[in-house]
Amino acid sequence: MDDHESYSWKPWAMVPLRMVMMMELFVVSWSYDESVQKNGSKAASHYIDVLRFNDEDVKVNFQGCGAMPRRDAENSEYGLPEGGKFIGRDPENEWSGRPCFFK
């Protein structure tokens, strides 16, 4: 987190679920997170997280989690076909300062 200027996590729904005949409890959460790094790069994602808990073992209640992210392309610079800047040694170069494109 030292590279981040700001970070926000906004959960908008959390649903506890229990499987019949099992001692496991699941919590499914839907959230949106945004971050801005100190270099100005931005990232934003929608997440569905599944957290697993064990009701029998009180000492080790948390069992694990899984996350399924989906990038928010409008508010993110990561995962896009363009981004960054070409910086050459010659400031007179016609390509200097243009965005990079990836195919």
What does this structure look like?
By secondary structure, the protein is mostly beta strands. The protein has one domain. 0% of the residues lie in helices and 57% in strands. It contains no helices and 6 strands. The chain has strands at residues 4-18, 24-37, 42-54, 62-71, 82-85, 99-101. The chain has a 4-stranded antiparallel sheet with strand order 1-2-3-4, with no helix packed on it. A two-stranded antiparallel ribbon has the order 5-6. A hairpin with a 5-residue loop joins strand 1 and strand 2 (24-37). The relative contact order is 0.17.
Short description:
0% of the residues lie in helices and 57% in strands.
Number of domains: 1
What is the radius of gyration computed over CA atoms, rounded to a whole number of angstroms?
21 Å
Query: How would you sum up the global shape?
Result: elongated
Task: Give the helix level as a range of percent.
Answer: under 10%
Structural class: mainly beta
Task: Please count the beta strands (DSSP E, at least 2 residues each).
Answer: 6
Report strand %: over 45%
Compute the separation of the termini in Å: 30 Å
Spatial strand sequence of the major β-sheet: 1-2-3-4
Largest sheet: 4 strands, antiparallel
What are the low-pLDDT stretches, counting only 5+ consecutive residues below 50?
none
User: Counting H and I runs of at least 4 residues, what is the number of helices?
Assistant: 0
Average pLDDT value?
A: 78
Q: What letter string, H or E per element, gives the SSE order?
A: EEEEEE
